[in-house]
Amino acid sequence: MAGLIYPFFISPLWGRVTVLQADIVERDNTLKEIELFIARRNELAQKFESFTIDDRDRLEKIFPKKVQVIERIVDLEALIVKSSLKLEGAIQPTGETGGSGAVSGSEGIKKIGFSFSVTGKYENLLAFLNELSKSLSLYDIKTLNFSSQESGILFTFDMDIETNQIAEAINEIPENLQDSRTNEQ
User: Fold this and answer.
1) What is the rounded CA–CA span in Å between residue 176 and residue 179?
2) Which of 18, 116, 121, 165 lies 20 to 30 angstroms, CA to CA, from 71?
3) Per-domain residue ranges for the chain?
4) Nearest in space to 120 (alpha carbons), one of 93, 80, 89, 159
5) pTM score of the predicted model
6) CA–CA separation, 162 vs 169, rounded Å?
7) 164 to each of 90, 106, 168, how far by Cα in Å?
8) CB half-sphere exposure, 71, CA atoms < 13 A
9) What pairs with residue 119 in β-bridges?
10) Cβ atoms within 10 Å, residue 130
11) Burial 9-21 (b: 16+ CB within 10 A, else e)
């Protein structure tokens, strides 16, 4: 009789117990990762709170939470005019990198692209790039192509540049995942 109980009753239950034990281990590991994430988030929040208001404003200008595309276009046009270059057409936002709206970036940073053409002397381009480097907004020049016009003095410069934006952060963690110390505060 005991020989029949093991294969039909105990063996299936034992298999289920081992599956449940593996599931418990996996959930414990996930819980530990969440706890580490919460601790890191709290640490970064405390560090951010220690910044002065001026430092926070500078950080927001360098890495805004939301890129105001129109503001960036106006800023770029002002730099172009200041550098005595002529804008050919309009500055085209290329979406979130790559022209197709695809997000690019890592570690919580998105890149927003712009494409435009300007005409002018090489010295004017250098002045524009110098002004661009002094801007509080960070820009990466992805491509810079040029062609000579008939006069040989003026050039047409085609540019693709990117600016940075902080990716959406997790602002709220469900209460059942919050650290108990956070709930006490």
Assistant:
1) 8
2) 121
3) 2-50, 62-166
4) 80
5) 0.54
6) 21
7) 21, 11, 12
8) 9
9) 86, 156
10) 11
11) eeeeeeeeeeeee
Q: State both tokens at 91.
A: 């500055």
What is the pLDDT tens value at each position of the chain, 185 positions in all?
Answer: 556 666 666 777 778 888 889 989 999 998 999 999 899 988 988 888 888 888 888 777 776 666 678 888 888 999 999 999 999 988 988 865 433 333 444 556 778 889 999 999 999 999 999 999 988 778 889 999 999 887 778 999 999 999 877 655 433 334 443 444 344 44
| Residue 96 to residue 88: CA distance in whole angstroms | 22
Tokens, residue 28 = 């414990």
b/e per residue 84-104 (b: at least 16 CB within 10 A): ebeeeeebebbebbeeeeeee
CA-CA distance, 88 to 29, in Å (whole number)? 57
Angle at 127 (CA atoms; ends 110, 82), nearest 5 degrees: 85
